Protein backbone atom coordinates (compact mmCIF):
# COMPACT_ATOMS: atom_id res chain seq x y z
CA UNK A 1 0.00 0.00 0.00
CA UNK A 2 2.80 2.42 0.93
CA UNK A 3 4.54 1.58 -2.36
CA UNK A 4 1.36 2.43 -4.31
CA UNK A 5 1.05 5.80 -2.53
CA UNK A 6 4.72 6.52 -3.22
CA UNK A 7 4.30 5.70 -6.93
CA UNK A 8 1.15 7.86 -7.09
CA UNK A 9 2.99 10.85 -5.59
CA UNK A 10 5.84 10.45 -8.08
CA UNK A 11 3.43 10.28 -11.01
CA UNK A 12 1.51 13.31 -9.70
CA UNK A 13 4.73 15.29 -9.41
CA UNK A 14 5.79 14.31 -12.93
CA UNK A 15 2.38 15.23 -14.29
CA UNK A 16 2.58 18.64 -12.63
CA UNK A 17 6.10 19.18 -13.91
CA UNK A 18 5.11 18.38 -17.49
CA UNK A 19 2.03 20.62 -17.20
CA UNK A 20 4.24 23.63 -16.43
CA UNK A 21 6.07 25.34 -19.26
CA UNK A 22 9.36 27.14 -18.78
CA UNK A 23 9.58 30.68 -20.14
CA UNK A 24 12.70 32.72 -20.84
CA UNK A 25 13.28 35.89 -22.79
CA UNK A 26 16.60 37.54 -23.63
CA UNK A 27 17.88 41.00 -24.45
CA UNK A 28 19.52 41.61 -27.82
CA UNK A 29 22.89 41.42 -26.05
CA UNK A 30 22.12 37.81 -25.09
CA UNK A 31 21.54 38.49 -21.41
CA UNK A 32 18.47 37.09 -19.68
CA UNK A 33 15.56 39.56 -19.48
CA UNK A 34 12.92 37.44 -17.70
CA UNK A 35 12.31 33.87 -16.60
CA UNK A 36 9.38 32.00 -15.12
CA UNK A 37 6.79 29.31 -15.67
CA UNK A 38 3.30 29.05 -17.14
CA UNK A 39 0.79 26.39 -16.19
CA UNK A 40 -1.26 24.39 -18.68
CA UNK A 41 -3.67 27.35 -18.99
CA UNK A 42 -0.84 29.76 -19.87
CA UNK A 43 -1.15 31.42 -16.46
CA UNK A 44 2.00 32.57 -14.69
CA UNK A 45 2.85 30.41 -11.66
CA UNK A 46 5.61 30.25 -9.10
CA UNK A 47 8.54 32.63 -9.12
CA UNK A 48 9.25 35.01 -12.00
CA UNK A 49 12.44 37.03 -12.27
CA UNK A 50 13.11 40.13 -14.35
CA UNK A 51 16.56 41.56 -15.02
CA UNK A 52 18.13 44.84 -16.05
CA UNK A 53 19.99 44.72 -19.34
CA UNK A 54 23.24 44.80 -17.38
CA UNK A 55 22.28 41.47 -15.79
CA UNK A 56 21.35 42.44 -12.24
CA UNK A 57 17.92 41.63 -10.83
CA UNK A 58 15.15 44.21 -11.37
CA UNK A 59 12.03 42.48 -10.03
CA UNK A 60 10.89 39.21 -8.48
CA UNK A 61 7.24 38.20 -8.59
CA UNK A 62 5.85 35.16 -6.78
CA UNK A 63 2.44 33.89 -7.90
CA UNK A 64 0.20 32.07 -5.42
CA UNK A 65 -3.22 31.52 -6.92
CA UNK A 66 -4.72 34.95 -7.58
CA UNK A 67 -2.16 36.71 -5.36
CA UNK A 68 1.16 38.16 -6.47
CA UNK A 69 3.95 39.11 -4.07
CA UNK A 70 6.34 41.50 -5.82
CA UNK A 71 9.74 42.93 -4.96
CA UNK A 72 11.61 45.37 -7.17
CA UNK A 73 15.18 46.61 -6.90
CA UNK A 74 17.24 49.60 -7.95
CA UNK A 75 20.17 48.99 -10.27
CA UNK A 76 22.51 49.21 -7.27
CA UNK A 77 20.75 46.17 -5.77
CA UNK A 78 18.90 48.02 -3.02
CA UNK A 79 15.18 47.44 -2.52
CA UNK A 80 12.81 49.71 -4.45
CA UNK A 81 9.27 48.44 -3.81
CA UNK A 82 7.54 45.59 -1.97
CA UNK A 83 3.85 44.94 -2.59
CA UNK A 84 1.08 42.35 -2.70
CA UNK A 85 -1.76 42.32 -5.21
CA UNK A 86 -4.81 40.16 -5.74
CA UNK A 87 -6.71 39.95 -9.01
CA UNK A 88 -4.81 43.02 -10.21
CA UNK A 89 -5.55 45.17 -7.13
CA UNK A 90 -3.06 46.20 -4.47
CA UNK A 91 -3.66 44.55 -1.11
CA UNK A 92 -2.25 45.23 2.36
CA UNK A 93 0.87 47.29 2.93
CA UNK A 94 3.06 48.50 0.07
CA UNK A 95 6.57 49.77 0.86
CA UNK A 96 8.93 51.78 -1.31
CA UNK A 97 12.50 52.95 -0.81
CA UNK A 98 14.86 55.53 -2.25
CA UNK A 99 17.94 54.43 -4.13
CA UNK A 100 20.02 55.33 -1.06
CA UNK A 101 18.05 52.79 1.01
CA UNK A 102 15.98 55.33 2.94
CA UNK A 103 12.22 54.63 3.20
CA UNK A 104 10.15 56.50 0.62
CA UNK A 105 6.54 55.60 1.37
CA UNK A 106 4.23 53.33 3.33
CA UNK A 107 0.82 52.82 1.74
CA UNK A 108 -2.05 50.59 2.83
CA UNK A 109 -4.69 49.17 0.50
CA UNK A 110 -7.98 47.30 0.67
CA UNK A 111 -9.24 45.91 -2.66
CA UNK A 112 -7.04 48.33 -4.60
CA UNK A 113 -8.16 51.47 -2.74
CA UNK A 114 -6.12 53.43 -0.23
CA UNK A 115 -7.26 52.48 3.26
CA UNK A 116 -5.54 53.20 6.56
CA UNK A 117 -2.34 55.08 7.32
CA UNK A 118 -0.23 56.56 4.56
CA UNK A 119 3.29 57.96 5.03
CA UNK A 120 5.85 59.51 2.73
CA UNK A 121 9.44 60.48 3.49
CA UNK A 122 12.10 62.74 2.02
CA UNK A 123 15.29 61.11 0.77
CA UNK A 124 17.05 62.37 3.93
CA UNK A 125 14.74 60.16 6.01
CA UNK A 126 12.58 62.96 7.40
CA UNK A 127 8.81 62.61 7.29
CA UNK A 128 7.13 64.38 4.35
CA UNK A 129 3.50 63.67 5.26
CA UNK A 130 1.24 61.37 7.24
CA UNK A 131 -2.49 60.89 6.82
CA UNK A 132 -5.32 58.39 6.69
CA UNK A 133 -7.70 57.04 4.07
CA UNK A 134 -10.96 55.18 4.50
CA UNK A 135 -12.27 53.36 1.43
CA UNK A 136 -10.19 55.56 -0.87
CA UNK A 137 -11.15 58.87 0.76
CA UNK A 138 -9.03 61.10 2.98
CA UNK A 139 -10.27 61.37 6.56
CA UNK A 140 -9.13 63.09 9.76
CA UNK A 141 -5.92 65.07 10.12
CA UNK A 142 -3.22 65.14 7.46
CA UNK A 143 0.16 66.63 8.32
CA UNK A 144 2.85 67.72 5.87
CA UNK A 145 6.40 68.78 6.72
CA UNK A 146 9.18 70.85 5.19
CA UNK A 147 12.38 68.99 4.39
CA UNK A 148 13.97 70.55 7.49
CA UNK A 149 11.40 68.75 9.66
CA UNK A 150 9.26 71.81 10.41
CA UNK A 151 5.53 71.47 9.92
CA UNK A 152 4.31 72.72 6.53
CA UNK A 153 0.56 72.02 6.32
CA UNK A 154 -2.11 70.66 8.64
CA UNK A 155 -5.38 69.78 6.92
CA UNK A 156 -8.54 68.02 8.09
CA UNK A 157 -10.84 65.94 5.90
CA UNK A 158 -14.20 64.25 6.12
CA UNK A 159 -14.87 61.71 3.37
CA UNK A 160 -12.30 63.45 1.12
CA UNK A 161 -13.88 66.87 1.74
CA UNK A 162 -11.37 69.46 2.98
CA UNK A 163 -12.67 71.10 6.18
CA UNK A 164 -9.66 73.25 7.09
CA UNK A 165 -6.05 73.90 6.12
CA UNK A 166 -3.27 75.66 8.02
CA UNK A 167 -0.01 76.58 6.23
CA UNK A 168 3.33 77.21 7.92
CA UNK A 169 6.56 78.76 6.66
CA UNK A 170 9.75 76.72 6.70
CA UNK A 171 10.73 78.27 10.04
CA UNK A 172 7.52 76.94 11.61
CA UNK A 173 5.68 80.28 11.88
CA UNK A 174 2.03 80.46 10.68
CA UNK A 175 1.42 81.69 7.14
CA UNK A 176 -2.25 81.15 6.21
CA UNK A 177 -5.38 79.50 7.56
CA UNK A 178 -8.56 78.45 5.81
CA UNK A 179 -11.79 77.02 7.18
CA UNK A 180 -14.25 75.69 4.65
CA UNK A 181 -18.03 75.72 4.89
CA UNK A 182 -20.08 73.79 2.33
CA UNK A 183 -23.72 74.64 1.71
CA UNK A 184 -26.30 71.95 1.06
CA UNK A 185 -26.04 72.65 -2.68
CA UNK A 186 -22.25 72.28 -2.63
CA UNK A 187 -21.27 75.97 -2.66
CA UNK A 188 -18.03 76.74 -0.83
CA UNK A 189 -17.38 79.58 1.62
CA UNK A 190 -13.79 79.95 2.85
CA UNK A 191 -12.90 81.89 6.01
CA UNK A 192 -9.35 83.11 5.47
CA UNK A 193 -6.50 84.44 7.62
CA UNK A 194 -2.97 85.42 6.59
CA UNK A 195 -0.05 86.32 8.88
CA UNK A 196 3.01 88.58 8.78
CA UNK A 197 6.47 87.04 9.04
CA UNK A 198 6.49 87.88 12.76
CA UNK A 199 3.34 85.81 13.30
CA UNK A 200 0.96 88.76 13.67
CA UNK A 201 -2.31 88.73 11.76
CA UNK A 202 -2.00 90.51 8.39
CA UNK A 203 -5.48 90.18 6.88
CA UNK A 204 -8.71 88.30 7.35
CA UNK A 205 -11.83 87.84 5.26
CA UNK A 206 -14.00 85.41 3.32
CA UNK A 207 -14.25 83.90 -0.15
CA UNK A 208 -17.41 82.62 -1.76
CA UNK A 209 -16.78 80.28 -4.68
CA UNK A 210 -13.28 81.76 -5.03
CA UNK A 211 -14.36 85.43 -4.93
CA UNK A 212 -13.61 87.81 -2.03
CA UNK A 213 -16.84 88.75 -0.22
CA UNK A 214 -17.97 90.45 2.98
CA UNK A 215 -15.78 92.39 5.40
CA UNK A 216 -11.99 92.24 4.97
CA UNK A 217 -9.64 93.59 7.63
CA UNK A 218 -5.94 94.46 7.27
CA UNK A 219 -3.37 94.82 10.05
CA UNK A 220 0.16 96.15 10.33
CA UNK A 221 3.09 94.12 11.69
CA UNK A 222 2.31 95.28 15.23
CA UNK A 223 -1.22 93.91 15.02
CA UNK A 224 -2.96 97.28 14.62
CA UNK A 225 -5.99 97.45 12.33
CA UNK A 226 -5.12 99.73 9.41
CA UNK A 227 -7.97 99.12 6.97
CA UNK A 228 -11.42 97.64 6.94
CA UNK A 229 -13.48 97.35 3.78
CA UNK A 230 -16.44 95.50 2.38
CA UNK A 231 -16.10 93.55 -0.84
From TrEMBL:
Domain of life, per lineage: Bacteria
Gene3D superfamilies with a match to the protein in the record: 3.90.930.1
Stretch forming the signal peptide: 1-19
Keywords of this entry: Signal
One protein family per Pfam: MORN_2
Protein biosynthesis as UniProt keyword: no
Name recorded for this polypeptide: Antitoxin component YwqK of the YwqJK toxin-antitoxin module
Amino acid sequence: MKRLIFIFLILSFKSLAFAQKEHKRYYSNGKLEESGQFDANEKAVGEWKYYYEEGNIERIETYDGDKVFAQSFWKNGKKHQISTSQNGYFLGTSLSYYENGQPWSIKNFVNGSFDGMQKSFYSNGKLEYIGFYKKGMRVGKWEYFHENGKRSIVATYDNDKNLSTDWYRDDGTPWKKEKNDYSTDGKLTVYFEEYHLNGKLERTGSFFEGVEVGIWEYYDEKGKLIERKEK
